[in-house]
DNA sequence: GACATCACG
DNA sequence: GACGTACGTGATGTCC
């Protein structure tokens, strides 16, 4: 029967329960692995008492739901970015418990509802309205005064803290007005906890008086001029807009899009088995026993040494988990079996997912199969695109037997992979998300074991699955080579026998699930939960979108350049052979060295450790200065440098980029490694679009091939001097910070401070030297390095450095402290808490020098990387309404494609996000400044 | 697959 | 006193 008259809906404010439970109980951890579970225990206790209470109540609900906040970010942040901005982030040991409280809710057979971009209060408002309109009753179980606006017409509140019913009378007592005017009073009074501004100087009492007198907020604002008290009158006139925004913030949205209807919320009997499973998994001894008695079932045994305890002993290293048994993996060949596995995933709220394809290039790969992992040792493979070995008479691929229809399988997978209540766990999920997105499935929400490892172990080792499995599970996975072979004879995954494929693919899902279970409780022990949750995990869908968008590249521009380069190379080659007096391979550094230093007798050749002459650009540049003593050598060196520049541009850029254009999209799709660079930077591969030439005129022309489609414009926004600003902040250098605040030329300022020359009319070479020193500091400067960079005597370079340290003593201090910290802890941290390990810091020999400089550089480079990561995570929401797409990231630059009409608005939005990216997690003493450029191509925009 | 070289921030 | 030195990446070509 549909929800209506005589029905009674209970809406439980789940988020409030969690925080109350957290603060009411001492820190409690699961004995077996140290997972914090205190809030979960308290939450279960509250829910259990609630359920018991209903059993003995005459007014028991017919329908019930537990409502949660999806995240702290909602549509209200669009209206007013500062909304709830002064709320501290949830404690580290609470964060991992959020998903567990959803699991707990489901274990009690109660629906857990959360909706992205909306607060729990909005969902409550929506369901309360629906219940009211259907003619039923609704009780909101919460102490939150913000919900009082909903009271009336069959909607009541019950305050579980005070254990009392809240009706019209209680609302009027609290706000002085009827529920429908509560938002007006709140809009005027504001709320310092939620950072709702309201009207300055007006509190609850005055607000209530004003609304009583004028009827409602709009009338009050319209007639503000009539108010007698001059100060109050002026405030209402001056802050009218702010008051209206405040009302938008406090007014609950009762048309939130919901994944369920009222009828889905009918009260269900508990399922003892599922509940017992959850409680024992949490290792709650007393609670399990108590609830088992209540349900009249046998309580599963939890041994004393397994029970949750509040000691903080680290989780044991030994693996008690199921062994890896490849024969236990299941091949799913029909819909019913797949449906069973998916139902189990839905039930438990998480599933490991892995896709198998024909290529590592996600934009060209075809889906071959999907594997699922539910529990250690319990994994399955769904073959979808396997073909038989030989092919038919004409060599065409023949679909292997025993595979279910691809479209049917995808249709079954889609609702679960997109279900907000089911976590999809993957290793490098960006890959699988892109593959599945091309099959029409938008996977969410996700977890990524690669990124969990990166957050905890950056700098210690890589984060590939094989490595993680061996290191943390003590298990060496089946090498992919044994299935595909290697080299020229390698086959693609669709040619692999299904039985073999099942072992490999299901194992991957199994490993991923086990790694997740192992890593999840460890994140907070390493104090990187916030890093993982705010800088790694949310970046995955953002990067996936960017990579799938790609950037348009004009093939003709590149092709013409390639042809011109080819001609030029032939010409240079002939000239070089002529000067040398013999033909040789100009591309071989070894042969260049022999020609130059042995055959032609140029002095100063130095052999490296491999016995070959060094012929790098710096060496050849020195040779070109020998015009007087060795004109032929100087000429040859100059021509080789020219040749190398053109050869580089042609082979790496103008030729290769043409091949990288995707024939289907006509665009180039790079791939970003999120866990590649130890410092938190991204790395771009296949092709690398983070090193497109810009420094020379010739090279810059390649950027003209990166274009916006007809009617659109490319936008480039980049942080100005971000690393130096971070250095000024971290090392706390007053002169540098002041200079950045005043928008001065920082290198000129440095030169002026160091050499005592005025900034006006400064010799450009002085400024250049200061600039080199500024950068040197970021890299962990040495006299030798600076001397080589500036080509000045070492003693002079050392003198510069000494003077720099003298003038800015905070730099020395920062360096010493950073190295000391690294030596003590084995890692350094960025301002956002990212850990970068420095395992070599206590080594002896030259390695220690490298490690020291890397340790000095890492917090600076890493903080800059964190800042742009935050900007990127926030960007999709910030530009959601605009015809703009984020395409590329180049460390301190973001590139967008936008319709010509929306350029200014997009720049304003993007700039605001980038310049404010550190807030509110980190407060910098220096402003972040972003420069913007636009154009038909990347060269113009930059 | 190691090495040298060179493109970027 | 000697040692080897700017930080972080990826792609290409040579050579073994």
From TrEMBL:
> Gene3D superfamilies this protein is in?
3.30.70.370, 5' to 3' exonuclease, C-terminal subdomain, 5'-nuclease, Ribonuclease H-like superfamily/Ribonuclease H, Taq DNA Polymerase, Chain T, domain 4
Q: What is its EC number?
A: 2.7.7.7
A Gene Ontology molecular-function term?
3'-5' exonuclease activity
Q: Which gene encodes it?
A: polA
Q: Name one Pfam family in it.
A: 5_3_exonuc_N
Q: Under which name does UniProt file this protein?
A: DNA polymerase I
Q: Tell me where on the tree of life, at the top rank, the source sits.
A: Bacteria
Family under the similarity heading: Belongs to the DNA polymerase type-A family.
Q: PROSITE patterns this protein is in? A: DNA_POLYMERASE_A
Lineage per the UniProt record: Bacteria, Pseudomonadati, Pseudomonadota, Alphaproteobacteria, Rhodobacterales
Q: Where would I find the 3'-5' exonuclease domain in this sequence?
A: 329-524
Which GO BP terms, alphabetically?
DNA-templated DNA replication; double-strand break repair
UniProt keyword list: DNA damage, DNA repair, DNA replication, DNA-binding, DNA-directed DNA polymerase, Exonuclease, Hydrolase, Nuclease, Nucleotidyltransferase, Transferase
Query: Record's CDD domains?
Result: DNA_pol_A_pol_I_C (cd08637), DNA_polA_I_Ecoli_like_exo (cd06139), H3TH_53EXO (cd09898), PIN_53EXO (cd09859)
Q: Does the keyword Repressor apply?
A: no
Q: Where are the transmembrane segments?
A: none
Q: How does it assemble?
A: Single-chain monomer with multiple functions.
């Amino acid at each position: 029967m549909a929800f209506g008259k005589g029905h009674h809906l209970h809406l439980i404010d789940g988020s409030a329960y969690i925080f109350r439970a957290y603060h009411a109980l001492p820190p409690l951890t699961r004995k077996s692995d140290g997972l914090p579970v205190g809030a979960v225990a308290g939450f279960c206790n509250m829910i259990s008492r609630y359920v018991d209470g209903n059993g003995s109540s005459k007014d028991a609900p017919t329908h019930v739901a537990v409502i949660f906040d999806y995240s702290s970010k909602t549509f209200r942040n669009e209206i007013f970015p500062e909304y709830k901005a002064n709320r501290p982030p949830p404690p580290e040991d609470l964060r991992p418990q959020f998903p567990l409280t959803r699991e707990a809710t489901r274990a009690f057979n109660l629906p857990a509802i959360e909706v992205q971009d909306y607060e729990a209060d909005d969902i409550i408002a929506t369901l309360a309205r629906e219940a009211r309109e259907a003619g039923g009753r609704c009780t909101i179980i919460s102490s939150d005064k913000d919900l009082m606006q909903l009271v009336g017409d069959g909607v009541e509140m019950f305050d579980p803290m005070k254990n009392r019913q809240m009706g019209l009378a209680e609302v009027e007592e609290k706000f002085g007005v009827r529920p429908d005017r509560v938002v007006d009073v709140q809009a005027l009074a504001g709320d310092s906890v939620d950072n709702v501004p309201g009207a300055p100087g007006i509190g609850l009492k005055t607000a209530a008086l004003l609304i009583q007198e004028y009827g409602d907020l709009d009338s009050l604002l319209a007639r503000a001029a009539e108010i007698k008290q001059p100060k109050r009158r002026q405030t209402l006139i001056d802050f009218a807009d702010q008051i209206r925004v405040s009302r938008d913030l406090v007014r609950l949205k009762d048309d939130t899009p919901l994944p369920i209807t009222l009828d889905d919320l009918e009260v269900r009997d508990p399922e003892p088995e599922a509940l017992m499973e959850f409680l024992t998994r949490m290792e709650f001894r007393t609670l399990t026993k108590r609830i088992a008695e209540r349900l009249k079932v046998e309580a599963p045994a939890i041994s004393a040494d397994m029970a949750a305890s509040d000691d903080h002993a680290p989780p044991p290293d030994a693996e008690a988990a199921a062994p890896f048994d490849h024969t236990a993996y299941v091949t799913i060949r029909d819909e019913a079996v797949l449906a069973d596995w998916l139902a189990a995933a839905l039930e438990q709220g998480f599933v490991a997912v892995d896709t198998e394809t024909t290529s590592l290039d996600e934009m060209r790969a075809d889906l071959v199969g999907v594997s699922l992992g539910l529990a250690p040792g319990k994994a399955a493979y769904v073959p979808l695109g396997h073909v038989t070995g030989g092919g038919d008479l004409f060599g065409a691929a023949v679909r292997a037997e025993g595979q279910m229809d691809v479209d049917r399988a995808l249709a079954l997978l889609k609702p679960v992979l997109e279900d907000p209540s089911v976590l999809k766990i993957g290793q490098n999920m960006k890959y699988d998300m892109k593959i599945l997105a091309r099959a029409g499935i938008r996977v969410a929400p996700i977890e990524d074991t690669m990124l969990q490892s990166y957050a905890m172990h950056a700098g210690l080792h890589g984060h590939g699955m094989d490595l993680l499995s061996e290191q943390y599970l003590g298990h060496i996975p089946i090498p992919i080579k044994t299935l595909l072979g290697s080299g020229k004879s390698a086959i693609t995954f669709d040619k692999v026998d299904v039985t073999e494929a099942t072992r490999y693919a299901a194992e991957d899902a199994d490993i991923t699930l086990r790694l997740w279970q192992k890593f999840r409780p460890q994140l907070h022990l390493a104090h990187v939960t916030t890093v993982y949750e705010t800088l790694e995990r949310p970046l995955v869908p953002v990067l996936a979108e960017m990579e799938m968008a790609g950037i348009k590249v004009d093939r003709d521009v590149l092709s013409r350049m390639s042809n011109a380069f080819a001609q030029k190379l032939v010409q240079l080659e002939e000239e070089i052979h002529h000067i040398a007096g013999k033909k040789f391979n100009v591309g071989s550094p070894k042969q260049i060295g022999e020609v130059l230093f042995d055959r032609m007798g140029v002095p100063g050749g130095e052999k490296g450790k491999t016995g070959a002459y060094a012929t790098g650009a710096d060496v050849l540049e020195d040779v070109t200065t020998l015009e007087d003593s060795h004109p032929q050598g100087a000429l040859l060196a100059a021509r080789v440098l020219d040749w190398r520049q053109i050869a580089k541009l042609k082979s790496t850029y103008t030729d290769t980029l043409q091949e990288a254009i995707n024939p289907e999209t006509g665009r180039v799709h790079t791939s970003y490694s999120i866990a590649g660079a130890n410092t938190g930077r991204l790395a771009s591969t296949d092709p690398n679009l983070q090193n497109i030439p810009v420094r020379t005129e010739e090279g810059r022309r390649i950027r003209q091939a990166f274009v916006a489609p007809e009617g659109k414009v490319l936008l480039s926004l980049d942080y100005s001097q971000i690393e130096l600003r971070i250095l000024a902040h971290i090392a706390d250098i007053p002169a540098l910070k002041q200079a950045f605040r005043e928008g001065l030329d920082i290198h000129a300022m440095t030169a002026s401070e160091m050499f005592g020359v005025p900034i006006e009319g400064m010799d450009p070479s002085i400024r250049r030297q200061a600039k080199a020193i500024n950068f040197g500091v970021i890299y962990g400067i040495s006299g030798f390095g600076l001397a080589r960079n500036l080509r000045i005597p070492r003693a002079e370079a050392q003198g510069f450095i000494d003077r720099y340290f003298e003038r800015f003593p905070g730099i020395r201090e920062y360096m010493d402290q950073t190295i000391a910290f690294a030596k003590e802890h084995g890692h350094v941290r960025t301002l956002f808490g990212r850990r970068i390990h420095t395992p070599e810091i206590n080594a002896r020999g030259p390695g220690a020098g490298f490690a020291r400089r890397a340790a000095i550089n890492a917090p600076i480079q890493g903080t800059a990387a964190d800042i742009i990561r935050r900007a990127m995570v926030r960007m999709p929401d910030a530009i959601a309404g605009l015809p703009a797409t984020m395409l590329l990231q180049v460390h301190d630059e973001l590139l967008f494609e936008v319709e010509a009409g929306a350029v200014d608005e997009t720049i304003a939005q993007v700039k605001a996000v980038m310049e404010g990216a550190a807030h509110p997690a980190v407060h910098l003493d220096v402003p972040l400044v972003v420069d913007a450029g636009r154009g038909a191509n990347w060269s113009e925009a930059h």
